[in-house]
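Q: I have two molecules that I believe assemble together. Could you output structure tokens for the complex as a whole instead of separate predictions?
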Amino acid sequence: MLMKYRLYTPGPTSVPEATLLELAKPVHHHRTGEFRTMFAEIQSALQYVYQTKQTVYTITGSGTAAAEAGIVNSLAPGQKALCITNGKFAERWAKVCSQFGIEHKDLKLEYGVAATGEMVAKEFAAAKYDAVILVHSETSTATVSDLESICKAVRASSSPEALVIVDGITSIGAIPFKMDEWGVDVAITGSQKALMLPPGLAFVAFSPRAWKAVEANKNLREFYLDMKAYAKSIADGDTPYTPANTLIEALGVSLKMIKEETIEGVWKRTSTIAEAFRQGMLGMGLKLFSQRPADSVSAVYYPEGISDKDFRGTLKKTHNIHIAGGQGTMEGKIFRVNHMGYTDAYDCLAAVASIEFTLKKLGYNVQIGSGVAAAQKVLAKLF
Amino acid sequence: MLMKYRLYTPGPTSVPEATLLELAKPVHHHRTGEFRTMFAEIQSALQYVYQTKQTVYTITGSGTAAAEAGIVNSLAPGQKALCITNGKFAERWAKVCSQFGIEHKDLKLEYGVAATGEMVAKEFAAAKYDAVILVHSETSTATVSDLESICKAVRASSSPEALVIVDGITSIGAIPFKMDEWGVDVAITGSQKALMLPPGLAFVAFSPRAWKAVEANKNLREFYLDMKAYAKSIADGDTPYTPANTLIEALGVSLKMIKEETIEGVWKRTSTIAEAFRQGMLGMGLKLFSQRPADSVSAVYYPEGISDKDFRGTLKKTHNIHIAGGQGTMEGKIFRVNHMGYTDAYDCLAAVASIEFTLKKLGYNVQIGSGVAAAQKVLAKLF
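A: Yes, here they are, computed for all two components at once.
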């Protein structure tokens, strides 16, 4: 039976058809006036998505490349960061610090727990830090930390100039993120999440305070990720090394869609779909994993007796739907569904309905329609 | 008037239609059995192109990322490399050494001059080195160094275990390159040259000798480009960080074309087209730049009175053909035309003919057809 392919993993996420078609166009060279004009437009659209007046640098690489670039350029070996580790990606950034000789205290939170301003205030009262590094929306736990209050806590602390370094990989372009207004210093994201593009590009922006730190960092051991080279090139509307230019051109198509919907429109759609999905899960008697659920991705506990392998296997095989499982210690315990990017109300309904069908098939006692009805009630807000 | 777009720059190069269409397919997730199977096939095809039994690691990034990965993972700070600097890219790898505390002597050759085994033997007789770093085919000067004889010279020297680190960005998959047979230790390439893909992926392979050096390099300051993480992941058929998976899937299409043509077939086609192009240039009275021309790209002196701006501007505007100018000190003095990758005999003829038309238009005394006839005589070998 015909079943369309639906990608509901929290990255890569599905990409608009118009963007995909752009990728099928013949390759052009990137050292041209046309490319520079297009790159400047993309720059301005990225600033809009980041809500910043600062330059957003485009790196050809994974999100990890941009995170390394953000952390290692702005913090010198021997400086000290508070790493809030409440998930797999947060733990990775602590490892980056270790690898580059950046001292760090890890504030370990249980998976699913969000970081708050109070927690950071307490840590900053007990010790001096040059930076706090956190993940705004932890993809691995579907948990959103209170970034705005964390920025305030840092500014009100005895280290008010400490850098707030934020992995916004599953927040920027999905949920409210206001780099300049909140005072975020280093903001990182990737192409394959809310920006509606395949993987391959990553982005990082620096506040004037963070850029001063970059310039002061004299013994930087980076070449490909030396951000001063990117700054020099962008002054000419360029990148220092051959960029993934077809992905950049396609990014232009996706960013135009975001601008047309407006960033506030994107945030509202995403949060409504996320709320509908959560109500759908609760409506069929399931339990959410996160103590402060993110709107970009949801994590749901498996009910007893349902195995990850059977559940996701059936979704894939019978429904042609790909959702994510748990990572690390949560493997087999939760499943995760994306709400970011190219996702509309009916994608949400299909997700909820397919989960109902699959759980029923696997013997879980669910009344078909209970989740969908709860979700639909929320989705009504959109129309 | 309808004029098809033709991209004749030495990277990005033009990409087969079938590969472009692959890029327009819906995005899938990369942590699946299907992806692993496909990635394993690509691995084996890359080994075929590299002519090696070693793993070829796929990095999401520019060629510069793979070059940094190759150099910095296999050479520790304080070790000493002989950098053969005979072009813009060779000079960049010397800068990478500086940035990471790798000592280096730069053997500066005039642009357009190739490195030979004798030169390296002389340097290795005068001092001890841990490695020689060279560009096999310098894109900026269209010059090919004698890699095979350089490998022999190193092995016959008093530092026979020194690493031969090779930027094969415009050689691997275009001209004969035999990693294992010649004893190359670190071999680097990028996606947007002979591999017939847009920019965004880069590749690096290590000989057992080089991999021993990677494992012995205990104080590595890399995270995204730490190759030990790639080795660990590839054991599971995976990459350590989200790869540009749509580019990888499209790479499969291009590599299949190379396998079908055979690598020897690709080398023969490329070298015949390059020879035809060179004869075409000589046939209309032009002079080649390089003292040892590469077959992947040709560089040609402008005749007196012809400006780069007018020449390449006319080609672009009237003929919809994009060729490259000179870089650095050669800006305005030469133009460069690609022969790598998705280039056939009639692309070569169009290149020669369009150069004839353009030079004539700009007042250069050329007999229309003189270049094309000379080129065609060589191309006859192909049929």
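A: One point stands out. The mean pLDDT of chain B is 97.
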